[in-house]
Model the fold of this input.
Amino acid sequence: MSELYFTKKHEWVKVEGEHATIGISDYAQEQLGDIVFIELPDVDEDFERGDDFGVVESVKAASDIYMPISGKVVEINEELEDSPDLVNEDAMTNWMVKVEITNKEELADLLSEDQYKDFIEEE
Amino acid sequence: MKKYDSLIFELSNPDRRAFEIPKNDVEEVSLESFLPKESLRKEAPELPQVSQVDLMRHYTNLSNKNYGLDTGFYPLGSCTMKYNPKINEDMARLPSFTETHPMQDDALVQGNLELMDNLDQMLCEITGMDKMTLQPIAGSHGEMLGLMLMKAYHQDKGDTKRTKIIVPDSSHGTNPASAAMAGLDVVTIESKENGEIDLGELKDALGDDVAGLMLTNPNTLGLFEKQIQDIAKAVHEAGGLLYYDGANTNAIMGITRPGDMGFDIVHLNLHKTFTTPHGGGGPGSGPVGVKERLVPYLPVPFVEKKEAGYKLSYDSPKSVGKISNYYGNFGIYLRAYVYILSMGYNGLKRASEVAVLNANYLMYSLKDHYKLAVDRPCKHEFVLAGINTDIAEMPTVNIAKRLLDYGHHPPTVYFPLIVNEALMVEPTETESKEMLDDFIQAMKDIVEESKNDPELVKTAPHTTPVRKLDEVGAARNPIVRWKPEE
Done:
């Protein structure tokens, strides 16, 4: 069973056991426009919640992407290096990093899918 | 416009020359006799070979495609693209300036040194600072120096844990970049919806590890930061310094001064506010001014007035050192000096007043057709949050491209990042009401077109030398060098 969460900075987090898969939301990719470059961290790098772990560059802007939860990177989606446009095609399946969660209590501070939908409607 | 898209390399013909070097009438010296062998190239460079008439036509044709302040309206927000008066060029071309060299002895360039000293004082008077350096050769260069000064100040006091710099999320992209270059950690704080600093957020971020705050005022949304004195007080109480990004100085000349607002360090963009050439790589000029307590750290050399005349002094043991070749872009800040002298105090004040008036005239004329990011009188620029979606839908990028067909340079788009579909407009004081009306009409026409003929707008531009460019392709697969066909 996996649980899906979102952040106000437009990342999504899918939690399965001790691991989380992280990407950016469909709303985020739409706002960014055509993505031309994605920079991801190295495997084994440790991050605190709120740290920037990478950069998404589109024809409009370069934006940092932030860690929704503290954790250690166990895998990155290398496919995005050559084909960053995959995120434009489907932001929810084309993930960016997988992390080992350090503190599961932090999940309580994230938004549910419905809360996130309400949040972007207000934006 | 006549179609012309050749590269100079494509015109090359080995039998042609634009200029023949006269026959050498002194003894030939072989290159090998004075250059090491590994420094000599084995093949001649493949320079293009063209006749003089082809050369002239090539560059004249290219220049005809150029668009600049001498061709039309250029309302690029945050860039202050104002007309550059030609008296600046006249004065910069005086032989007494063009025939001087930075290596000359101080005694032989007293006029140049006097100009530097006078300009320093004038810029101090305009910004409310105590001392300026003219060395930085760009705004971002000024920013970096400003942060180096901030660092030097804290370190000199033995305060080594101040490694953080606070920037609002509406700040210019160069701010976090300069901070990172200066070796400081960037802390971004969220602005309020109108782009103003959230004092609570700021106070939370302040502490004994914060070196300072970088700010523009008026801010990136073209609004005056009314709480600036509270902001300055909070930063100073926490032991930090305030840095003023001079990008928006065109709104405040002769009206208020960063020094009076509480800023400790200021940079100016002479290529924005003070009519030196802007765009196309400059060259720019970004003087930095500081309050008394930071003067010891300013770069060397600086001009000193002695009884015997002006002198370049290097005597400043705490200085951060030299930050540019010689004394910065002398030929550029000399133009700013001419501008300030031609305008005078009243003229500069009037320029800011008219810049603000022009921006408000545009903003309120467009408010039914476009969404205002903030509905409140602006300073020298304002931000639209895209088209009024009650009338029609059209992405900002297409509106910008369509403006090219109307003969206007588009405003800044998708900046600041805190406004959706942003269009950032800065008309400057040098535009007439007729030009502003023409632009307003074009902007309104594009809204009508978006409603009645959206394809026309989406496929724009239609009349430019090149049509809509493949921005994704250009970013992903840039071709940066011409290669001969195999």
Q: What stands out?
A: Chain B has a mean pLDDT of 94. Residues 141 and 310 of chain B are 26 Å apart (CA to CA).
